[in-house]
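Hey all, sorry for the wall of text incoming. These are the four entities for the joint prediction.
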Amino acid sequence: MLDERKLAVLRAVVEDYVSTNEPVGSKALAERHNLGVSPATVRNDMAVLEEQGYITQPHTSAGRVPTDKGYRLFVDRLSQIKPLSGAERRAIETFLAGAVDLDDVVTRTVRLLAQLTRQVAVVQYPSLIRSAVRHVELVPLAERRIMLVLITNTGRVEQRVVELPDVVEEDRIAHLRAVLNVCLDGCRLSRVPETVADLQERLPEEDRPVANTILSVLLETLVDRHDEKIIFAGAANLAGDFSVGLREVLEALEEQVVLMRLLGEASDSAALTVRIGSENPYSGLHGTSIVAAGYGSGDNELARLGVLGPTRMDYPVTMGAVRAVARYVGQILAGS
Amino acid sequence: MLDERKLAVLRAVVEDYVSTNEPVGSKALAERHNLGVSPATVRNDMAVLEEQGYITQPHTSAGRVPTDKGYRLFVDRLSQIKPLSGAERRAIETFLAGAVDLDDVVTRTVRLLAQLTRQVAVVQYPSLIRSAVRHVELVPLAERRIMLVLITNTGRVEQRVVELPDVVEEDRIAHLRAVLNVCLDGCRLSRVPETVADLQERLPEEDRPVANTILSVLLETLVDRHDEKIIFAGAANLAGDFSVGLREVLEALEEQVVLMRLLGEASDSAALTVRIGSENPYSGLHGTSIVAAGYGSGDNELARLGVLGPTRMDYPVTMGAVRAVARYVGQILAGS
DNA sequence: GTCTGGCACTCTGTGTTCCCGAGTGCCAAG
DNA sequence: CTTGGCACTCGGGAACACAGAGTGCCAGAC
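and here's what came out:
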């Protein structure tokens, strides 16, 4: 259907358009990409490519521009992910290694990615649900108020203030803390609810009301906080590009829910997800593409990160950067 | 120098320009603001105002536009802060009351403020330095690694992983925790360094190396974290306004340091700070104004918040919103 | 002395027209 | 199947004119 040369033409169109941001014509194309054929031949091929929907012209008698479908083919079959340079790798490594806590890791990552790709970077905080309890802490704040602190093995710390139904003595709290830690330490968060239910039955009668209050807050923390936090950086990179609806994009970026869907569900292992223009779920973001990847320590994917830019982006380079950053972050998290 | 009527004219120019975003002419002005005088008179007044630098014309024979100096006079003497409507107040209250922890309070605040003012909102996290230690927690993670968690009375939680020089038994850590809490509980963060120094001397010899490691990390947490975190929201509100250099502003917003300086130092008590156009410290932000206020529980100002928008903003309304939100946040923090 | 109406002047922004050039599609010949 | 030639199309920029809003200034009225 599409012979070698037509694919080469498509590749050339994408590459030229990406680098010049102007519709590319047959003549310029034949020259710059020594294809060994004349502009007229290129024109014929282009006509076919257009008929099949891979490229289009903004108006009669202008050059051609890739369509979403064209970019898709390019990404799937015509391009190779471009690895980062050694210098870039070292830069990533040293920059991320300086992080002091989880928050810092995520913040640094998002900035790094934005700077590296010159686009908008998006990073999701490591998911709670896949990690395990490392420690539960109860801190008395006032007579009837304690703070519940939950530390996970991914370094995340969740805290909630709990209002107690009764005044409770310190040592009963200490006891409760001990029990909690024995039961929950190392427990996968996804299995905490069962464990907690089990625990409630085994507690002595007099501890029940207080324990129930605390445990319900604990469960809430896990469930409600299903709103995984996402941050972005590099919005400034959007300015000056009028091909995207700036306002819509900025609005989308501030909607956690939209961002969630944008990064997409965990796909198979460490594969990169690319969503091009109209492929992506939010209508304000046609005109933009997403390159995303999962990251995590070891095998299990903890969360996702990616970048967002105009459909007209340099996919090979962007994909290389995203993949590299995802890997490094995984390493950092595993090691801390 | 400037009689009553000229001031009225200036006020009218500002108000009209703010609402229409177009240079305002003498005729329209005389009509809309029944000043009781003819356009010609207004023209004369305008000529004087221009000569004094309060207004200017974009080009010969266009209407007048306020200068930064004009806005300044308007804010200082010609306008009154406009209080929020009852509905708005209730909305703020219920929205903020739903927050579950400090992070949530800050996030909600920044969104609220952005939505309320339809501008970019900026909120600084409550400063560590003014708060006091409520609890210190040491959580063993591995043989030679523990997590240090510091909880302040403003609800902020800081965490750091500490690598220990030696393997340490659990009960020595427990002991250390107890000692730390006795010494530091209620201690103002600003006075922690002395207290720590004092503590180091009183510890038994064999605990020194471990304790020193932990304490130095603790001090770091306080000092290094002098980079008070600032977040913003509502960037989408900037789009569509070309009077500001979009790119510059977005870049500035992503620079913590610039944001810091922007919000300004704590001023006297709960007063509002207004920085107009060229008055503000960063050159990329001429063309924008900042309205900021301190917030805190009770008397002491914990941090600052504000909004950033085009110099051509509705100052009375914006100031009202900022003041109101600052107050409510203060209340919420005091109560939690 | 201050205000007012009148008048000539000066701009910007918009709409029109025109033309150039890049790029195309098609066709006939190699 | 490829190529060169050719007529055609359309966007974008330059030149131009024009209407409208707004000004500054002046002479007369209160």
